[in-house]
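Can anyone check this?
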Amino acid sequence: MQDSSAMVDQHDGEITPLELWRILLARRVLILATLLACLVGALAYVLLATPRYEVEVHVDKPLASDITTLNLGRTFAVELRPYTVEEVFEYFTRELRSDRAFQVFFRDIYLPSLADGPAQEADPSRMYHAARKLLEVRVPDERGRGRNLHAVRMGAVDPALAVRWMEAFLDRVAREAKQRLLEDARTQVDLRVRNAQRELEQMRLTAAQERKDRLAELGEALAIAKSINLDDPQVSAVRVPQQDALAPFVDGSMLYARGVKSLSAELENLRSRVSDDPFVPGLRDAESRLRLLQEIEPDAHALAVYTMDGPIIVPPDPVWPRKSVVFGLAAAFGLFAGMALAIAVEFVSRGRSHRALA
């Protein structure tokens, strides 16, 4: 009776490492059973859990050759600056980061792929948040490598499905960005065309009004010349006058001095003129600019707004569940849980023995 009490009293204090090892060794069956149960649970999770495959691509600026058709006709002669690859890429990245791009992915790509599955009957808000977790766009780190590269990650339950979703998503984003870019480019061209047309119209109206003014001036000068019976011009043909001295006889108050014959001939010529275009300075240059502007029409099919840094690779293994991670965590948890359970069982057993001896 005294030996038992001494043994019990010996265990009233802290457990030594040696004693702990003896407890674990004595309860090794319980520890192994707990470990095995955790590993079986991990195996069931790996077999039953929905796998998640991910593909990731990096997108970069388009090549200069990809935007050649966009810049055809865009020269400083028509007051249109050619687009740069950075400007074109900005249209793509702005669309890529927009919430509108995700809405299109969710409505036109994600939901149709679930049309035949049970997930279609789920709560729309939950489906929306689930889709949010599948798509991620990461902007480049200005301080890191690849400053111009945007990363796009797409997840799915099937590797081929992840690739199809990625291709469809990038295609939709590129299509929307291209459409907005072409709309802006056409708006710029249309504005220049309207301005050029208005310029031509004003030049012709001004020329017509100037012809009317000239007719009025010549009419008055002709009336004066007839009233003084001045048939021939009062400019000597032997000595050509200086230009400054001749100006009043052509455009000034002494226009009547040209005589009735000269004034009548010019009046008749102005009245019979069909078009003022040949006599309008700069009109042919304006017409040339207008024709160049009207011929600008970018080829949307040959335009690319981004390049992909490498092909999309089908992932061979899911990112989750990872067997090594799951079994490693299960083994670690099972081992520590088994040890804790063994110690707890040992203390419960000793507590009962202590009460029985008491």
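Reply from J.R.: I decoded it. The two ends are 10 Å apart (CA to CA).
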